[in-house]
Amino acid sequence: MKRLRGLVGAILLMGFGWGGALAETFDIFDYTPPQGWKNSNLQGGVMLALQTKEFFGTIVLYASVPAGNDPEQNFRGEWKRLVAEGLGLSGEPTTEMGPPNGDYQNLAGGLAASQDGLNYVVLLSTFTGNGRVASILYITTDEKLFDLFDRFNSSLKLSKPKAAQAPPQNVARPPSNAPASARSISTPTTRFNDGWVATVENGFVRVARGEVVVLLHYGMPLPENMWVMGNEQDRVNYYWSRLVAPRYKVDELKVFKNDTCYFCLYFGEGSATEVATGARKHVALYISFDKGLGYAIQVVAPSFAAFQKEFPNIEAVGKMYGYNKFAVKAADLTGKWTSSSSAAGQYYNSITGAYAGMNAVSTADTFTFNQGGTYSSAHNGASGFVGSQQFYSQKYQGRMTLSDWRMTLTNRFKDQTETFEAYFEMTGAGPVLHLIRVDAKGIHYRLTRE
């Protein structure tokens, strides 16, 4: 443990001036990879690895994620996600607060482990700032790498997260160069069994039941200067001023304040007067963030009591985005639809702790639907440990039929007929086609028109 404290201190008390030009950029990190280390891209990260017969060492830089302003809370969340759950290690880490790196506060912690006489160290270094937390994970069996870790940290420079400026319009809109036919669908209304009715409108999906109306706004970027710590009020105000204020004059906007949080809630509400009619309403706004975009859900109810009846808690408002769902018609499908995805995982020997390689999966799928009810599809991918991956390529063509939110495709694998749940999700760039295998829910294609 004394040795571990020395390592933590070495990482935290470093300077920021390792000589040489910065060679790589990932997410908010600028860094210089150690010479001779293998560089691999992961889903949501970059891994640098060195393995010999005597020892191994790994450095993993993870993409920053939205977070609150408490470095200790963020460290605990990242430790649970990346070490306790990701590596299966138990025990409390030794932690120490470090000096800031630009706008980011550093907090590092580590754990020394021993299995079958083999000693190794896991060190997690987190950086909290600009409304995000970014993490670096270090693992080694040899203390000779401690100095290299120190020099690697010395090369780090952290920048502000990149986010596009929001458009001046009140709502996010589809790209102007996309044809109207690519952004519209034949059935823009869905009547759900529980009484909610969803309708596609310009810039959002309107969902209503009784006197309660919910607007599911499409993704809108958050300006770069809004990615700051402790900004629940600022973020809610930003979206409220663009989406709600033009139509409703609020008496007092009450914004939910997170105490400490890893995945924070952004929610505001208040009694308001409708500008056009003078009618009194209760208005609420819930915002979730994904890949730099804010997805706002606006609720308008005749009273606070009516709002509470439909939404007893904040999380219930967030679930309303599941009503962005519309039926698929053959006329909407003609053309090519594509998707691609990738994922990777690192493996370590559960007995020795030694690095055991990286397993990666990547897929690319294309569906072409023709007039007259025929289709063709191509599915390409690779899976397995890097260096010995297995590749596949499959092509099919046959008949396509639609009925009751389902799509049936003939001549699939081994000439079988496959049935999919089929629906459209509307976005600012047009519809996303969801195809989910009825007998294998894990097969879920999310396709956009090419």
Description:
The chain is mainly beta and 450 residues long. It has three domains: 2-158, Protein Transport Mog1p, Chain A, CATH 3.40.1000.10; 180-323; 330-449, Lipocalin (Beta Barrel). The protein is 15% helix and 46% strand. The chain has eight helices and 28 strands. The chain has helices spanning 2-12, 71-84, 146-154, 180-183, 232-243, 304-310, 314-318, 330-333, and strands at residues 24-26, 29-31, 38-42, 45-51, 56-66, 94-97, 105-115, 118-129, 132-140, 157-158, 189-191, 197-201, 204-209, 212-217, 220-221, 248-250, 254-255, 266-274, 280-290, 293-301, 335-348, 355-369, 374-385, 390-403, 406-409, 418-427, 430-437, 444-449. The strands form four sheets. Strands 11, 12, 13, 14, 15, 16, 17, 18, 19 and 20 form a ten-stranded antiparallel beta sheet that branches. Strands 21-22-23-24-25-26-27-28 form an eight-stranded antiparallel barrel. A seven-stranded antiparallel beta sheet has the order 3-4-5-9-8-7-6, sandwiched between helices. The longest helix has 14 residues, at 71-84. The radius of gyration is 26 Å and the shape is flat. It starts with a helix and ends with a strand. The model is unreliable at 1-22, 163-182 and 342-353 (pLDDT under 50). Residues 160-186 are annotated as: Disordered. Residues 172-186 have a biased composition (Low complexity).
